[in-house]
Amino acid sequence: MQSQPAQPNPSEPAVDDDTARKLRRYSYGVSAVLIVVCNAVFLAGLWGSGINLDALIRTPDVFDTTKDVCLRFTWHRVIGADEPVQLCNEWINLSDPSGETHTFQKDTKVVRGGDGKLYFDHGAQVDYRLFLLAAFVALVIGLGVATKRYLIARYRMRLDTQGETPS
After folding, report:
1. Distances in whole angstroms, Cα of residue 163 to Cα of each of 23, 104, 156
2. pLDDT tens across 1-49, in order?
């Protein structure tokens, strides 16, 4: 059994091997250049916006008696309790190699649960600049894909017009 040659798609113009090779090579080159350019635009936009990614995505820092050493206690108002409660306000995290002291965040509220235990209410941890950053990344990627398609289509038309002229 011999395999039959693939039938050409009538919606695509017929392309010979030399043109296909040129088009593929141009496509690879455009892709490589656009990867570098889009990354440069993204990094320039990130630098220009002044967004600190470490501060953008942050997890609340809470004193843990098994991993931390408390340096200073302070009194805190507790929601659900009549009297203030003494909590660790400044501590050293033993697993943190920097040795920096960690402090109780002012926007954290302490709540006494129904079981009598204390819980931390950190509030909303959403930073909407993260959504703007994601939209910027999507815009850069979309413009890169559209530019690539445009450049390849333009190069293909140029190859087609060169192939029609008699040599």
Report:
1. 13, 72, 11
2. 555 555 555 455 556 788 889 999 999 999 999 999 999 999 998 888 8
- Two tokens at 66? 């098994």
- Beta-bridge mates of residue 108: none
What is the edge-to-edge ordering of all strands in the sheet holding 118-121? Answer: 78-79, 109-112, 118-121
- Tell me if 91 sits within 8 A of 101, measured CB to CB: yes
Task: Retrieve residue 165's tokens.
Answer: 């002229």
Residue 3 lies in a domain: no
Structural domain of residue 155, as residue ranges?
17-53+128-162
**Sign, CA torsion 61/67/71/72:** positive
The gap from C-alpha 120 to its chain's centroid, in whole angstroms, comes to 28
Q: Are 71 and 45 contained in the same domain?
A: no
* Number of domains comprising the chain: 2
**pTM higher than 0.70, yes or no?**
no
Tokens of 109: 């509220």
**C-beta of residue 140 within 8 angstroms of C-beta of residue 42:** yes
Same domain for 82 and 68 = yes
Q: Are 69 and 92 in contact (CB under 8 A)?
A: yes
Query: Which amino acid type is present at position 137?
Result: V
